[in-house]
Specification:
alpha/beta; globular
Length: 349
């Protein structure tokens, strides 16, 4: 069992908060880039058929859907394509389906136009809702939407409106992230120069608590710190990252895990295109680092941590900090997930 991640590093416009590796398509032909991805896969393949495939970015919806077909054909299971609302048209939605996608992940981030403008998003709230309905009409029955809380100018009241309006659409999955100001991003620069201020911690807590309450009321399972799903609709691909399932990452900036070793491709498109099959570098991990990775990823989930991974002394500490699950595992409570870092630090070696 293995998953496949494919990085499409092209964007028409860089969002103010984004620190993922991406840039304009200028100077490259999308066809040549996909050929490079296929060349990398031919050398590094982890499986003949992948259980999950995730086309992320960047913005995969900037390239023609037909170019994704050879990549989406590498597995029969969950096949996700990330899209932006402004790229969704009836024709494009149909072509993503025809290319083999059976799940869409769409970055909405907010349904308040002033908040979208503050972080450089190119769509409007009405445009995002229209895009969702277009995907539904095309035949997609598995759609994930993204939201961000803590945006500049956002309040608990505007956040409540975004969450309620998103849930009215009845998506199968919702990812909601607390805004982080990553060095090198435009938003971080604005923060340093005093043009914006961070959202107050009390407001962040109020937003998170409303999110948990509203999604629970709507029938969603809160299965990972930032992820909520209707029953049976959790992201199988992302879950593989948290349960140590092997996965192969293609493209510049992509990471891989073969079950024993981690590797990554440097975030440099020009260098990648010169030698896509040999671009990767091994990320050396000590046994302690590997153990800590497993502990931290398992604690991100509602399934929780396998106590057998811990020494008797560590299990005693874990039982004091964590709550038991019916399956005999140990998890961070939902109420503590927002401040989970100090708990994780207590349990790593």
């Amino acid at each position: 069992m293995a998953g496949l991640y494919v990085h499409i590093p092209f964007c028409r416009h860089k969002c103010a908060y984004c620190d993922f590796y991406s840039g304009p398509l200028r100077g490259f032909r999308a066809e040549e880039y996909v050929e490079a991805l296929i060349a990398e896969h031919s050398v590094r393949r982890l499986a003949d058929r992948y259980e999950t495939i995730y086309i992320g970015g960047g913005t995969p919806s900037t390239i023609h859907p037909a170019l994704l077909r050879p990549l989406l054909s590498l597995g029969p299971g969950e096949r996700t394509v990330e899209v932006n609302p402004e790229d969704v048209t009836p024709q494009m939605a149909t072509q993503w389906l025809q290319a083999g996608a059976n799940r869409i992940s769409m970055g909405v981030q907010s349904l308040i136009d002033s908040e979208l403008e503050a972080v450089g998003r190119r769509h409007t709230a009405a445009g995002a809702i229209r895009a969702f309905r277009t995907l539904r009409e095309a035949g997609f029955d598995n759609i994930s939407l993204d939201l961000i809380y803590g945006l500049p100018g956002q309040t608990p009241q505007t956040w409540r409106r975004s969450v309620e309006d998103i849930l009215e659409l009845e998506p199968e999955h919702l990812s909601a992230y607390s805004l982080s100001y990553e060095p090198g991003t435009l938003l971080h620069t604005r923060l340093l120069t005093g043009k914006i201020t961070e959202t107050a911690e009390d407001d962040i807590v109020e937003m998170y608590e409303f999110l948990c309450t509203a999604t629970h009321r709507a029938g969603f399972n809160h299965y990972e710190i930032s992820n909520f799903a209707q029953p049976g609709r959790h992201s199988r691909h992302n879950s593989s990252y948290w349960d140590s399932t092997p996965y192969l990452g293609l493209g510049p900036g992509a990471h891989s895990f073969d079950g024993e070793r981690r590797s990554f491709n440097p975030a440099n498109l020009g260098e990648y295109m010169k030698n896509p099959a040999g671009a990767f570098q091994i990320e050396e991990e000590t046994p302690t680092e590997r153990h800590n990775d497993i502990v931290m990823t398992q604690l991100r989930t509602s399934r929780g941590l396998d106590p057998e991974l811990l020494t008797p002394q560590e299990r005693t500490k874990a039982r004091r900090l964590l709550q038991p699950t019916p399956e005999g595992r140990l998890r961070i409570s939902e109420a503590d997930w927002l401040r989970s870092d100090p708990i994780m630090i207590e349990l790593i070696r």
